[in-house]
Design brief:
four-stranded parallel beta sheet; globular; Rossmann fold; 8 helices; alpha/beta; six-stranded mixed beta sheet; 312 residues
Length: 312
Amino acid sequence: MVNRDAEVKPFNTLADGLISRIGHTPLFTLHRIGAEIPGVQLLAKAEWFNPGGSVKDRAAANIILEAERAEKLGNGQTLLDATSGNTGVAFAMIGAARGIPVHLCVPENASGEVIQTMRAFGATVTLTSPLESSDGAIRAAQELAQKEPDRYFYADQYNNPANWQAHVQTTGPEIWEQTEGQITHFIAGLGTSGTFMGTGRFLRERNPAIRLISLEPDSPLHGLEGLKQMATSIVPGIYDERLADEQVTVRTEAAYGMVKRLAKEEGLLVGISAGAAAAGALELARKLKHGKIVMVFPDGGSRYLHEPFWKQ
């Protein structure tokens, strides 16, 4: 359960400028996808409205602010972390705004637009083996941190509680307010697991009847950038498998198809992990007679227009 004994201030009230623009993203209703299930409403949290273009702005901002409060960052240290993409963009963006050097370890097969964006913000990017996915990037970051501990603040998003706490402070309360407490199901993909863990914990405290559904790729070799199949990956330290009421797996092809449907039928150009969330939510909706399902759309689709499925 979330500790409410101490006053918790959302991170977006604690800093001016760029960080104050993070959060308060809209919640869109899908009108055509799922229309054949009249008793179930599908709602999408549109996280590409964050200034860095993704849900990861929330965790990155909180990790940086907590490190500054603890005086672990801000004295010339370089922020170091492993990322499959969006968290790296967020770190690079906030680092540029706050004068913090950033070094990121990224799988070589990450979106080219994402890697280019990190570099545009001035981050140093070390590319790691595409065959090892995000796990290879984690190992590379750990090695750098161990070699030069005084040089780096290792943000360690996969094990840093400030990751999921950002969603207790912001994402969960926003969804509760936007649905007027009527949410019945929450579904989010697992990468670092921070979005699912923090939002889920907040919602469960507000209403234990809300069903929490985690979403993973259906195989270890997949095209769902940013998502992990936990059974075959380095499991994040912040992940607790006991939180989910249900676990759903999604095929890469189903996610690709849903991305195209969302663009053509809803006018929402979203990323691949958002397509996976919608595919999982639609599968869930077909099992229900009534419900209000909220899913997280982690980012927009402009970073993935190079993907071959758009030409198919």
